[in-house]
Amino acid sequence: MKEILYYTWGAIVSFVVAFSVGITYMGLNRKITARVQNRYGPPWYQNFIDVIKLYSKKTSIHHGVMHHMGPAFIMVTAVVSLLVIPILNGNKFFPNLNFQGDLIFLLYIMVFGPLGMALGAGQTGNPNSAIGVTRGLSQMAGFEIPWVMALVALMIQYKTTSIVDLMNVQVESGRWLMFSSPFAFLAAVMAMLGMFRYAPFDIVGAPQELASGPMSENGGKYLFVMMSAGSVFTFAKLTLYVDIFMGGADNLIILVVKTFTLYLIPMLYGITSPRYRTEQSVRWFWGWPSFFGLLAILQAALF
Amino acid sequence: MNMIYILFTLMFGGAILTFLAHKVSGLLRDTLFVLTVLASTVLFYTKIHTGDTVDFSISGLSLQWGINAYGRIFSMIVLGLGVMASFYSVSYMKGKERLGYFYFNFLISLMSMMGILMSHDLVSFFIFWEMMTWSSYFIVIYNGKNVQRSGINYIIFSALGAYAMLMAIVMVYAHTQSLMIPDMMQAFPFFPAAYKIWLPILFLTAFTVKAAMMPLHVWAPDAYADSPMAYTSVFSGALSKMGIYGMIMVFVTMVNYLPDDTWFRETIAWLGAITAIMATLWAIAQDDARKLLAWSSVAQLGYIITGVAVGTPLAMLSALFLSVMHALFKATLFMAVGAIEKQTGTTKFTEVTGLIRKMPWTFISSLLAIIGLAGIPPLGGFVGKWMLYESLINSNHYILVIAIFFASTSAFLYCYKFLFGFFLGQEEKEWEHVKEAPALMVLPMIIMATLLLVFGVFPGIVLKPIDLGMQTLGYSTTAGTFWSMSGLFNEWGNQIMMRPLAYAIGGTFLFFLIILTVKGFKETRYVTTKDISSSGEVPLEHENLTFSEGFYQPFLRAVCPVMKRRMMTYYQGFGQGMEAFFDYLRRVYSGNGQTYAIYVIVFVVILLLFKNSLFG
Questions:
Q1: By the CB < 8 Å criterion, does B369 face chain A?
Q2: Phi, psi (5° rounding) for residue B354?
Q3: Shared domain check, B594 and B501
């Protein structure tokens, strides 16, 4: 019982941190995008305002049980992956479950939510939602290949599938994995572009084309939960990258600096790119990113 | 009399009685059918113990039946699925024709599968194997649909496998003068080198036909799709596992003794992986649920074959665990398709939509089964997949693990297609009258879906008998080193604990579900799926905007180069070539008396010319 309370407390604390950091990042994204496009843009705290607005709005309709449950599914992915990913080195301040799960578990729990939300989106009956979902799943089949290649390369090089072990390797050697396994890092970062779904890979939401895709027909409390899950998940993914490639972080400030630096990659790449078609996007991931993934596996297997 | 005799007498007698009862009354027939399956299951689990054997001899051949711990793993699948499918069939087959014929073959195929698991000699193994093939063939052609295509394909490939097995059995008998399987295993290391290569190849030909491994898989999609869904759950869930049962025995007893077994293992493992990838892509392209699930079965067996071929203790554990899980979730899904077919009369995604509110229980069980199939925690499929990946990574199969992962990620695409196509999307007037399937059909699905969840959180329940079976095959115990009641470990000592993770998943889900429900409970009301705004337009009553045509077209465009070649075209080309060749040979019979006279003269001249060398 005490253990459960302990982990619940850890979940709440990590959730609050991840939520505020993630939502700030999204606000900064809007601001930076605007400045690049020579607009003034909304203030950096605009997304806080949006979330509060969504929460306080009255939700008057839903399209059925699956639609109602969809946002809860996506929240499971966000929270459970946050629980399994160690936030700081040595598991300081944030108790979590990383000794119960590993990288392969993480890979699979990361698709739990999107699939659940896809079911919710399916029940709305809006054709745009279903089209967005098929695009998203196709793209996932694309970017998972270089991403798994990068992870497999790390696993075989350091003979572990646990995130904590990978962090310890970096702490002990004093060398980040992004320098000792550069190809794996390249493949993983290219896969990250697809994971974050900014342009040119924004085929799922596809503004001006699919009317926000799976998100359409959602408002009020549903969109509130989805948006919070999105920001928590953003933070979780960035923390995972920092953990396995950039040596983790000793305190929150270093973590924020590292994650934001990483976050700039998909953001800036997106601002300066148009949109791919679905098959182009899928094939893009099977091209150079997978080639780097193969190089990473070769490097890990041979050296 | 020995209990093993009674078991077979019961099953065979039950089959005949059911067949005869069909003439008397439908109720009697259904009761006898279900009772036979139930009674033999109860008998098997209460009276027949691991290690029981019975010896007898027929015309000088000494034969032996018995059950060991390894056979027990598969008997769990056969009898468990048998019970579920028998209850389901009674309701599903109601009102169809020739039910005596169907139930007779159903029972015979259950009996022959038990026979395969209990044969300790090659002759009864072969006979039961053939009985299984024939009984399932009769059910494949029961519907009378595509008999040419699905029926003939199935029986030709099965015959190919059976001949290969027969040849192997004759080779073994010629060399050892014994038909007992243990004798063959003991003698195998001392066989001549050519035998050592050919025996596993011949046996594997027979077994991989049933397990539908590429290139011998072409019968599977049609045969699975065309048999009645009540039987397909057994066909895909249990009957195909007989191929896995045989393959594991071949790999453990024969391939281990090959002088250089690596290439052998790698070839089969890669064939399994290619089967998984290609079948997944074909499943994505299907618009008929039965075809989709049939291809998906082929793909899932591809993973299992890879696990068997790799053969490390962890890989073998995962293959056996996935076999049990595949039986559970694929049977559930085939049953769900059967339920939908019964209630709506179609299985095409393009025709039927929006059933979620009409068939909620079917939806829930298919949802759980799909989560299990996709390998998403905390359901059973994840445990099997986790062990498979870890075993591949730990045994240095780096590219293979990527291939398997690709197949498994692409599987999400057809998983979503299945759920969306039937249950989600806009509701139509045409399907307004549809009701939930009868309780007898829904209950088996729900039971199996629940079992998937239980086995996912406590995999130890299934891994315990599997571990005992693997000890029979000569593996040392894996309990504690690779698994505990709800924990899994790999060779590097990393671990995963299913129970706390399942609690975390369930807790988070419930928490946010409660928040979503409680907040504004009174204000939020249900509106139909027609009440949407698609780009500012509200669809009219008669308009259906469900997206079901060309569902994954962009993805299929991306992968089209690999889907251009099909195994079937090669077989057809081979068939046409043979036809042309024999057509040419046929010209010998010209129908002209003078030509035949020349043949006779030429024959006599040859005889005279070579008289000395032929008869001298």
A1: no
A2: 60, 45
A3: no
- Please give the Cα distance from B281 to B410 (Å, whole number): 7
Q: Which two tokens stand for residue A160?
A: 């572990």
Helix (H) or strand (E) holding A42: none
Does a structural domain hold residue B141?
no
ipTM of predicted complex = 0.92
Q: Which of B486, B521, B556 is at the close of a domain?
A: B521
CA B415 vs CA A35, A72, A128, B236, B555: distances in Å: 42, 20, 19, 17, 15
- Same domain? For B278 and B392 the reply is yes
Overall domain count for chain B: 2
Mark which of B464, B493, B521 sits at the end of a domain. Answer: B521
- Chain B residue numbers touching A166 (CB-CB < 8 A): none
- In 3-state terms, what secondary structure has residue B589? coil
Q: Is the dihedral of CA B447, B452, B458, B462 positive or negative?
A: positive
Look-up of token digits 């995972």: A240
Nearest CA in chain B to A119: B420
pLDDT of res. B1: 64
Which residues, in sequence order, are CB contacts of B390 under 8 Å at separation 6+? A104, A161, B314, B488, B490, B491, B494
- The single residue listed with the structure tokens 């890879």 is B306
Distance from CA of A133 to the nearest CA of B (A): 9
- Inter-chain touch A134–B494, beta carbons under 8 Å: no
The minimum CA-CA distance between B222 and chain A, rounded to whole Å, is 26
CB B368 within 8 A of CB B453: yes
Query: Is the distance from CB of B309 to CB of B303 less than 8 angstroms?
Result: no
Q: Which domain holds residue B457?
A: 261-521
How many of the other CB atoms lie within 10 Å of CB of B77? 26
Contact B516 A65 (CB under 8 A): no
- Domain assignment present for residue B390? The answer is yes
- The amino acid at residue B397 is H
Tell which of A9, A65, A155 to mutate to test the B interface (max B CBs under 10 Å): A155
| Cβ contact A80:B505 at 8 Å | yes
Which residues does chain A have with pLDDT short of 50?
Answer: none
Q: How many CB pairs under 8 A join A and B?
A: 248
Q: Is B460 within a domain?
A: yes
What backbone phi and psi angles, to 5 degrees, belong to A203? -75, -15
Residue B354 within a domain: yes
- Identify the residue whose tokens are 């504690």: B480
Residues of A with Cβ-Cβ distance to B545 under 8 angstroms: 125-127
Encode B204-236: b = buried (16+ Cβ within 10 Å), e = exposed: bbbbbbbbbbbebbbbbbbbbbbbbbbbbbbbb
In chain B, whose CA is at the least distance from the CA of A282?
A: B558
Q: Mean pLDDT: which of A185-189, B175-179, B222-226, B518-522 is highest? A: A185-189
Q: Are strands A61-62 and B525-526 parallel, antiparallel or unpaired?
A: parallel
CB contact under 8 A, B555 and A279: yes
Please check the confidence at residue B523 and state whether its pLDDT lies above 90. no
Inter-axis angle of helices B313-344 and B360-374, nearest 10: 150
B423-466 residue pLDDT tens: 888 888 788 888 888 888 899 999 999 999 999 889 888 888 89
Chain B, 532-591: which have a CB under 8 Å from a chain A CB? 532-535, 545-547, 551-552, 554-555, 557-559
Contact A96, B368 (CB under 8 A): no
Rounded to the nearest angstrom, the minimum Cα separation between B355 and chain A is 10
B394 and B480 co-located in one domain: yes
Q: Match 């003034």 to its residue by tokens.
A: A40
Residue numbers in A near B402 (CB within 8 A) = 145, 148-149, 152, 293, 297
